[in-house]
Amino acid sequence: MIALIQRVRRAKVEVEDKIVGQIDGGLLVLLGVEKGDDDAKLKKLADKVMKYRIFADADDKMNLNVRQAGGSLLVVSQFTLAADTDKGLRPSFSSAAHPAEAELMYEKFVGYCRDSDMLVATGEFGADMQVSLVNDGPVTFNLQV
Fold it and tell me: Which InterPro entries match (predicted)?
């Protein structure tokens, strides 16, 4: 399971010119689900996303997590994160989870974060989405478990 997280000032997801999810500061989480991912990996990654200290404290050090900084999450499914790009000039998606499995894991990830009292907005699984963001920093990290 892979999460590409970006610290944002604001972010939104549109589907067919309608906003389906947006936040005013926090983390944009692009989530990729791979074959073999399970609930243990999901919880470990979700906890890491929510506890990762990439927001500035009073001394301007990256020392606060998204909750401590008063932010929220915008979680967007992104199967291309599971691409194998080692060979050739065309990505292979053989390591990506089947869409039905990936959707279930995506929904569980969102639910786990919400159950942890995080404010979570989402994209629309499997849709053609347009994602807009203002990356703060820019600060971007690739987290994997």
Answer: Daa-tRNA_deacyls_DTD, DTD-like_sf
